[in-house]
Structure to design on (253 residues):
């Protein structure tokens, strides 16, 4: 009987000791956390990231890392939704903590500009990157403006090169301007004259400023309000003599 009592007392003492040990450990953890020793999960750069990279394209260039809580800046990225649809405003190097302040809206990042020719006006258009060579464009480029609209109404159209057609909801497309000078670019990928186009991560939208005559400004404004436009980047040898009105009948003939 005495052995059973002794065993019970020993078990109780061991249990109490375990409880005290756990209590002391938890209290110590709390103290460490208060002292800034506790770890916090933040995103860090593990591979160099170039200016203009879209947050959605960071891929394996970043990783979630445990770092001492007291070293974590208030603007550290702990969730990628914090920088969604933004681009890196500077080059980032391996080892640094990813910061929300280093990412901006695409329209605020890449700014490139050339002088406006005498007698010209400037007008800006905001286009998705896939409407302007994947967002790869720079000030000084020349572009063609391609316009598409839906044909409506019951009256027949007489279309040069096609003939008379009756609107049936078909679209009509025409390159309405050629050799238009780009004077300013905001967003997208800008390249210097000696760099090859391509690569990188385009912004989701690009603000393009064009130099146009008064009549062409009016024409472009009407086109934007009536249908859709895209810009085709041209070169000095671009041949625009084959430009035509295009409808479904033209494409499928």
């Amino acid at each position: 009987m005495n052995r059973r009592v002794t065993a019970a007392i020993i078990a109780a003492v061991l249990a109490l000791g375990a409880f005290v040990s756990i209590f002391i450990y938890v209290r110590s953890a709390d103290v460490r956390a208060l002292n800034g020793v506790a770890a916090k999960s933040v995103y860090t750069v593990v591979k160099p990231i170039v200016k203009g990279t879209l947050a959605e394209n960071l891929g394996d260039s970043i990783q979630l890392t445990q770092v001492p809580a007291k070293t974590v800046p208030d603007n550290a990225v702990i969730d990628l939704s914090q920088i969604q649809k933004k681009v890196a405003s500077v080059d980032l190097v391996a080892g640094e903590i990813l910061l929300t302040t280093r990412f901006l809206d695409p329209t605020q990042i890449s700014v490139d500009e050339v002088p406006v020719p005498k007698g010209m006006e400037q007008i800006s258009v905001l286009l998705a990157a896939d409407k302007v060579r994947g967002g790869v464009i720079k000030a000084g480029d020349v572009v063609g403006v391609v316009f598409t609209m839906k044909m409506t109404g019951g009256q027949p159209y007489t279309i040069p090169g096609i003939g008379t057609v009756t609107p049936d909801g078909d679209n009509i497309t025409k390159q309405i301007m050629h050799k238009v000078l780009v004077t300013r670019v905001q967003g997208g990928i800008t390249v210097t004259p000696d760099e090859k186009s391509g690569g990188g991560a385009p912004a989701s939208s690009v603000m393009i400023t064009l130099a146009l005559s008064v009549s062409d400004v009016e024409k472009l404004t009407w086109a934007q309000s009536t249908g859709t436009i895209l810009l085709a980047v041209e070169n000095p040898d671009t041949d625009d003599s084959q430009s035509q009105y295009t409808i479904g009948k033209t494409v499928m003939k």
